[in-house]
Amino acid sequence: MFKRDQSLIEMYAKQSPKHTEMVCAFVIASIRTHTSRLPKIMNSYRKRGRNGLSELMPRQQEGILYARKHRQWLFNLVERYRNGGITTEETLLELMTIPCIGLVKAGFLLQCLTGTVGCLDCHNLRKNDMPENAFNMSHNRVTEANLRKVRRYVQTCEELGGSEVLWNEWCDAMADRYTTFEDGNAVSFLHSQAIAGIN
To answer: Interhelix angle for 2-13 vs 162-177, to 10°?
Structure first.
């Protein structure tokens, strides 16, 4: 699942800043949104731009429009990370400058774009007996306290099996939870389908 769909998403994102922006839009749209609704939301955004975001909360809309306006910066940041010009921790903190993106969603965005880190959302945190606010941060400034928390987040992702394991387990868990999905494979494919506009 991960190997196929994350690779498709990464190849898609590498094509241009606009493509990278669409990955970011998907990540933001996924916040407090049922996964099954994401292809419809992304198609609406793809066709209608900002007018296609009415289903989302105002803060989500703000984040997506920020990513749209700053997509060249986002594209360049990810390229710097891929080329080793910036650390994982620094990259996560930079991604958190996008409205509506906290540490967990920054981890998910980097997972989609590069296959690293992961998304320790409320489902993963509960499953691993961690409080839901374990990785909340009040700001994204580069302070020693923030770097410690971000390092702990990255380390926790690795201890739980890494990006691939987290992705596949999450997709399987969503398929078990919701009858909307045939299996985890369908949940995983939805990610690349929604982002790339595959029908």
So the answer is: 110
